[in-house]
Write a structure and sequence with these properties.
Helix content: 25-40%
CATH topology of the largest domain: Vanillyl-alcohol Oxidase, Chain A, domain 3
CATH superfamily of the largest domain: FAD-linked oxidases, C-terminal domain
Number of domains: 3
Radius of gyration: 22 Å
Largest sheet: 8 strands, antiparallel
Number of helices: 14
Distance between the termini: 35 Å
Shape: globular
Structural class: alpha+beta
Strand content: 15-25%
Strand order of the largest sheet: 16-13-15-14-18-19-17-20
């Protein structure tokens, strides 16, 4: 009989949300998960499945039953000929990256961190950048799903294709993801080149930048015109040492946290801090060559509040200039650096923020120096207002204030997803407070 632990306090990585589940489970087999769902049906309890808890929203919180999938983390099959890998849903991508490399394979794109699980990273629509690449869920060839009734369903592009179209960004509300099959590529090296520019230059020449680099992104430093452009591209060059730069970067972030803590008492310092760190870390050209996953990933050094919306790519310039204008006309509203701007190919996944359109993701942050909260409401609401005006859709893992009424306007196939969810989980076993705001 599977054992549930009481008294566990769950908290997400950023320590911005938490909950106290009545029972906390760490199953090791599918039969144990079936047993947990059976108990939940018997006691009319909700069930929330979590992986690493990296989402900076309350999407993973519950006061009923919580299933943590960390012990279901095996690689089940590597097909070197088809370049595909099948894994249990709880495997961390950081472990998968290393194992794939042993077989000469890699995932074609990754998010900023790999301390996340396979099911979690697809379920919230995690992305990176590259207009020729989709969100990570577009790499999913097939998956298996355990429903609220205890039935196991397989889905792929040819088997249960409508379920596959929904489950690739599942929000944790369709059932328990058991396995995921990813399409991989031959492992590769990336050369990352970082160089300074201005907001005007990058927006005026956006199409050229998108064509020049496979994985192009840029960082804008609010309260200034400063931009750091980042190109990442395939290379046959051997790995290069960037130890001195990385050392400076690490020191810079420790100094940043200290200065931002001071700025919580003196907010007018934030624009100067942004400019100082652009000068300190980003005014020169830097090149780095390494394995793809080591370039895609970077270390999140301290906690933060985050919003990240996908907007139609043709609205990039309009949205950024309006955000810049709002900050310039409201000097009491301060914004930490960077605003990270990334680009992603459209897809046909029902609740993908890139559904049926190439998109620009505009990620804003407010750091929490030494865990201290900072004023952000005015900045948040101004940003959300712009994002909604230009037809944006929020990242599912991150903070937003949207409700079902908003999502019905944003997603042409929202009702189709709702019908699939209601059929698979008519009692709402897999809902929580976050998801109830999405669907009711």
């Amino acid at each position: 009989m599977v054992h549930g632990e009481g008294g566990v306090q769950f908290q997400n990585w950023a320590k911005t949300y938490g909950s106290s589940p009545e029972l906390y489970f760490q199953p090791t087999t599918v039969d144990e998960i079936k047993e947990i769902l059976g108990l939940a049906r018997q006691k009319s309890k909700k069930v929330k499945v979590v992986g690493a808890g990296h989402s900076p929203s309350d999407i993973a919180c519950t006061d009923d039953f919580m299933i943590q999938m960390g012990k279901m983390n095996k690689i089940l099959k590597v097909d070197k000929e088809q370049k595909q890998v099948t894994v249990e849903a709880g495997i961390f991508l950081s472990d998968l990256n290393v194992e794939l490399s042993k077989h000469g394979l890699a995932l074609p794109i990754l998010g900023a961190v790999s301390d996340v699980t396979a099911a979690g990273v697809i379920g919230t629509g995690t992305h990176n950048t590259g207009i020729g690449h989709g969100i990570m869920a577009t790499q999913v060839i097939a998956l298996t799903l355990l429903t609220a009734s205890g039935e196991i369903l397989e889905c792929s592009r040819t088997v249960n294709p409508e379920l596959h179209q929904a489950a690739c960004v599942h929000l944790g509300c369709l059932g328990v993801i058991l396995t995921v099959t990813f399409q991989c590529v031959t492992e590769f090296y990336l050369q990352e080149t970082t160089f300074p520019s201005t907001l005007k230059e990058v927006l005026d020449n956006l199409e050229s930048h998108l064509k020049t680099s496979e994985y192009f992104r840029f960082l804008w430093f609010p309260h200034s015109d400063n931009v750091s452009i980042i190109y990442q591209d395939h290379t046959n060059k051997p790995p290069s040492s960037s130890a001195n730069w990385l050392w400076d970067y690490a020191i810079g972030y420790y100094l940043l946290e200290f200065l931002l803590w001071i700025s919580t008492f003196l907010p007018f310092l934030v624009p100067w801090i942004n400019r100082f760190f652009f000068w300190l870390l980003f005014t020169g050209k830097v090149e780095n060559v390494n394995m793809s996953y080591k370039v895609f990933n970077y270390e999140c050094r301290f906690k933060q509040h985050v919003q990240d919306w996908a907007i139609p790519i043709e609205k990039t310039k309009e949205a950024l200039l309006e955000l810049k204008g709002i900050l310039e006309s409201n000097p009491k509203v301060v914004a930490h650096y960077p605003v990270e701007v990334r680009f992603t190919q459209g897809d046909n996944i029902l609740l993908s923020p890139c559904f049926q359109r190439d998109s620009c993701y505009m990620n804003i942050i407010m750091y929490r120096p030494y865990g201290k909260d900072v004023p952000r409401l005015d900045y948040w609401l101004a940003y959300e207002g712009i994002m909604k005006k230009v037809g944006g859709r929020p990242h599912w893992a991150k903070a937003h204030t949207c409700t079902r009424r908003d999502f019905e306007k944003m997603y042409p196939s929202f009702q189709k997803f709702c019908s699939i969810r209601e059929k698979l989980d008519p009692r709402g076993m897999f809902l929580n407070g976050y998801l109830e705001k999405v669907f009711y």
